[in-house]
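Sample intake sheet
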Amino acid sequence: MKKENQIQLPILRSSYDNLTKSEKRIADYILENAKSFIEQTVSDIAVNTDSSEVTVSRFCKKLGFSGLQGLKIALAGEIFSPDETVYQDINVDDTYDVIAGKIFQNISDGLQDTLKLLDFKDVEKAVQILSNAKRIVAYGFGNSATVCRDIETRFIRFGIPVQAYCDSHQQFTSASLLTDKDVVIAVSHTGESIELLESIKIAQNSKAKIIAITSYARSSLTKLANIALNGMGREVHYRSEAVASRLIHMAIIDLLYTGMAIKNHDSYMKNISKMREVIARKRL
């Protein structure tokens, strides 16, 4: 993890000379206290920078963010760089209790980070878009493919056609046949998979709506999406194998699933009842 005084958020550096005196105090505070900044409320920041809540809001918008939440997400993505490991990697001579401690602690911390950084207005919008979808497709590769399969298995319970595509050629074909009534859920840890980005561009040309699930707020995938939900996984690695992000992304999918179940309660419960009845016939 980068030290707080090493934070190089590009947009902050490039905009610095155009900031007012009070806004520069906020910028300086971020550069010196990056990690604690993402856990503070707008009131805390105003007090700590000798400014006002209005100034903090204006500062965020001047940097191109819709509000404080957007700045926090971008800052967290800078602190926890995709090329760096936040905590110590798993070592070949670690005992199982040490391995378990590293993995479980980082998953727990990643979930808490995600809880702080999620924009729940975007979550609500995503639930609305998914509820109105004629068809849902999920795109992802590698570890993200398992998340896509989970989407396929679970979201079909809403009575909406759902399909996971984890092969680039299938994604391209699927994306070309989408309409403005369809939704793509694109899952990617880095948000920089070239083939996935190409699939999303094709889907955009088909007028489909894009919901991105990724770990980096400034990724190319985030920029292409209509809505981006970022999961801040604090990765523990063994020979570069990411462990936490898949579970963090699944937790975000759980959130969307639960939101849809609540929003479509009556039809959802009818579907669940039908499913249980059929499954019960297959049991001894």
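Comment: The longest helix spans residues 96-117. The chain has two domains: 10-80, 96-281.
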